Amino acid sequence: MIPVLLLAAGRSSRMEGVDKLLEEVDGTPLLARMAARALELGPCFVTLPALDHPRRAVLPATAQVVAVTGTMSDSLKAGIAALPQTACGVIILPADMPDITAENLATLREAAQRTQAPIVRATTQDHQPGHPVYFAASQFPRFAGLRGDRGAAKLIAACPDAVTVALPGNRARLDLDTPQDWAAYRTR
């Protein structure tokens, strides 16, 4: 089993008081949209700042919530710790990436299963590194050493056996962090 870990515990600090993950895309809150896509593959674990956070109300009932406070590395460590023992790996996806589809997640999972690589990273069409990223269970202990808001980039950089999978266009890097990002996304 390869669950998806959806990172949604951030504060939306650059959104001028608006929660970016509750903003709507095609009539659905972004977090609900991304969780539904992840659930198409199987189990989905979602990090939130608290179990009673307003974001929880938009999640499908089958999404498993992991409460976490702190930095990005704290979210990653808590999410990894919450995975079942039967997980042979995990696909990690920041929740603010609206163009990542269930098909993209499946493509990454298939590449991981086919290559048996310890890490499989999505890239843009022109091969710029992005998200989502698959980590085999053999990589889980490496998360314990992470600190701060840099995510798992250090783990990926230190893995010579990592494989990349190009996704269409810029979707592997398109995230919506600011009101300007949202405005540009909505007018395209």
Describe this structure in words.
With 188 residues, this protein is an alpha/beta fold. It has a single domain, classed as Spore Coat Polysaccharide Biosynthesis Protein SpsA, Chain A. Helix content is 26%, strand content 21%. It has five helices and nine strands; from the N terminus they run E-E-E-H-E-E-H-E-H-E-E-H-E-H. The chain is globular and about 40 Å long. The mean pLDDT is 90.
Q: Which terms summarize this structure?
A:
188 residues, alpha/beta, seven-stranded mixed beta sheet, two-stranded antiparallel ribbon, 5 helices, globular, MobA-like_NTP_Trfase, transferase, Nucleotidyltransferase family protein, magnesium
The structure class reads alpha/beta
CA-based shape = globular
CATH architecture level-2 label: Alpha-Beta Complex
Helix share, percent: 25-40%
Number of domains: 1
Largest sheet: 7 strands, mixed
**In angstroms, what separates the terminal alpha carbons?**
37 Å
- With helices defined by DSSP (H or I, 4 residues minimum), what is the helix count? 5
CATH homologous superfamily annotation? Spore Coat Polysaccharide Biosynthesis Protein SpsA, Chain A
CATH topology tier name: Spore Coat Polysaccharide Biosynthesis Protein SpsA, Chain A
Please report the first level of CATH classification, the CATH class.
Answer: Alpha Beta
Beta-sheet strand percentage? 15-25%
**How do the strands of the widest beta sheet line up side by side?**
5-4-1-6-8-7-9
Mean pLDDT score = 90
Order of helices and strands: EEEHEEHEHEEHEH
Radius of gyration: 15 Å
Low-confidence stretches: none
Kindly state the number of beta strands: 9
GO molecular function: nucleotidyltransferase activity
Protein name: Nucleotidyltransferase family protein
Organism: Thalassorhabdomicrobium marinisediminis
Keywords: Magnesium, Transferase
